[in-house]
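Translate structure to sequence.
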C-alpha cells in the first residue's frame, strides 16, 4: 500500500475518534458565541464557504432552517462576497438581522475573507468557523467558533470537512435552543446524536473499505462519474465528486436526484458513466431516489447505492451504512466518499491534486484561492 493511499485511508478511519473527542468540545464553545439579544435579532442566516466548506454549509442549511424557523441558506463565497451587499447601504439597522457564518479550515481563502469583511461592513453579524483564529478570516470576523483539528498525514480534506460539519451543526442547535424553537432536552438529544455518530463512523469504515476497493478496480478506466443526492445528501454528492476530482483526476459531476432526470440522464454512453447515489432510507427524497435507481438501471449505468437499509433496493452494488437521522447522514457519508477516491487514485496512479505541478502548478500552497485580489469597501 502506497504512502499516499495509507495517509488518505488513515484520515477516513480516524473520523470516529475525531468526532468522539471533539464534538462535545465544539458544542461547549458554540454555547458561548452569541448573546440572547443577538440571537433574537436574527432574521436570516447565510452559511458560506468554498469547496468542502461550502459542502458543509449545504449539508447543514436545511436542518438549521427547520430547527430555528429562520430563513437559512448555503451560499458560495463569491455570491456572498460580490452579490449580497450589492446596492444595499452599509450599516443599515436592518442588516444586523443577518447572521453570516463563514466556514474555512485555514481561514485564508481570499473570497471568504472578502465576503466576511464586506458583510461585516454592511452591518451583519459575522461568525467564522475555522481552525485558525489568527488567520485573515479570524481577523475579519466579529466572532469565532474554533474547530482545531489534531494533525495527521496530509490528504484531500476529510477530517477538516467533518469538523466543519460539527461546528455548523452545533451552532444551529444552540441558536434554536436560545430561540426556544427547540427544547433543552431536544437540543441535548441532538448533541448526543452527533457525538454518537462516532460509532456509526467506525462501522462505516469497516463496511466501506472492501467494497470501495473492489469498485475502484471495476471503475478504474472510467473518466466520467455522476454523484447524486438530495437534501443534506446533495452535500454528500458534492463532497464525493470533489474528492474524485482532487484525488483521482476524474471529471465527476454532482447533481440533485431530481435534477438528474432533467439533465445528466441524457448523457451519451451511459454504460461508461458510473453513478453514486446517496440515499438515506428515511430521507424525504426516498421515493424519488427509488425511481432514480430504476432509471439508472434502464440506462445501463454502473451504479453504487449508499444507503442505511439492506432492504432499500435490490440494486447490485449497495453499501449499507449504520442508520443515523437524515440531517447527520453527511458525516457518515464522508467515509465511503473518501475511501473510494483514495482507492481510485491508487488504481489510476494519480498523485493527489496532480502534484501541484505542470499545468496545475498555480495551485501550489493554495495560491489560486489565497492570493486572489481582495475587493473591499473603502
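Result:
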Amino acid at each position: 500500500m502506497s504512502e499516499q493511499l495509507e495517509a488518505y485511508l488513515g484520515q477516513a478511519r480516524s473520523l470516529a475518534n475525531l468526532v468522539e473527542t471533539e464534538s462535545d468540545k465544539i458544542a461547549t464553545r458554540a454555547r458561548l458565541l452569541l448573546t440572547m439579544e443577538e440571537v433574537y435579532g436574527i432574521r436570516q442566516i447565510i452559511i458560506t464557504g468554498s469547496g468542502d466548506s461550502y459542502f458543509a454549509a449545504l449539508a447543514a442549511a436545511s436542518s438549521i432552517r427547520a430547527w430555528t424557523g429562520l430563513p437559512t441558506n448555503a451560499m458560495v463565497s463569491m455570491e456572498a462576497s460580490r452579490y449580497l451587499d450589492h446596492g444595499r447601504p452599509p450599516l443599515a439597522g436592518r442588516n444586523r438581522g443577518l447572521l453570516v457564518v463563514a466556514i474555512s479550515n485555514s481561514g485564508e481563502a481570499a473570497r471568504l475573507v472578502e465576503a466576511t469583511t464586506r458583510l461585516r461592513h454592511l452591518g451583519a453579524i459575522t461568525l467564522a468557523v475555522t481552525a485558525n483564529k489568527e488567520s485573515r478570516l479570524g481577523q475579519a470576523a466579529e466572532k469565532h467558533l474554533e474547530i482545531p483539528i489534531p494533525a495527521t498525514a496530509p490528504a484531500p480534506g476529510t477530517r477538516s470537512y467533518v469538523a466543519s460539519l460539527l461546528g455548523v451543526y452545533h451552532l444551529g442547535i444552540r441558536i434554536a435552543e436560545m430561540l426556544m424553537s427547540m427544547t433543552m432536552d431536544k437540543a441535548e438529544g441532538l448533541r448526543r446524536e452527533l457525538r454518537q455518530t462516532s460509532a456509526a463512523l467506525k462501522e462505516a469504515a469497516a463496511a466501506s473499505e472492501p467494497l470501495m476497493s473492489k469498485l475502484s478496480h471495476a471503475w478504474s478506466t472510467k473518466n466520467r462519474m455522476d454523484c447524486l443526492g438530495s437534501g443534506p445528501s446533495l452535500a454528500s454528492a458534492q463532497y464525493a465528486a470533489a474528492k474524485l476530482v482532487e484525488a483521482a483526476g476524474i471529471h465527476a459531476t454532482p447533481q440533485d436526484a431530481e435534477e438528474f432526470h432533467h439533465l445528466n440522464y441524457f448523457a451519451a454512453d451511459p454504460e461508461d458513466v458510473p453513478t453514486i447515489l446517496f440515499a438515506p432510507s428515511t430521507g424525504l427524497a426516498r421515493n424519488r431516489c427509488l425511481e432514480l435507481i430504476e432509471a439508472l438501471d434502464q440506462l445501463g449505468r454502473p451504479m453504487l447505492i449508499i444507503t442505511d437499509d439492506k432492504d432499500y433496493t435490490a440494486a447490485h452494488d449497495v453499501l449499507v451504512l449504520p442508520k443515523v437521522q437524515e440531517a447527520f447522514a453527511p458525516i457518515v457519508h464522508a467515509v465511503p466518499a473518501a475511501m473510494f477516491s483514495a482507492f481510485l487514485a491508487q488504481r489510476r496512479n494519480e498523485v493527489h491534486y496532480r502534484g501541484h505541478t505542470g499545468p496545475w502548478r498555480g495551485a501550489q500552497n493554495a495560491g489560486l484561492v489565497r492570493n486572489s485580489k481582495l475587493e473591499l469597501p473603502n
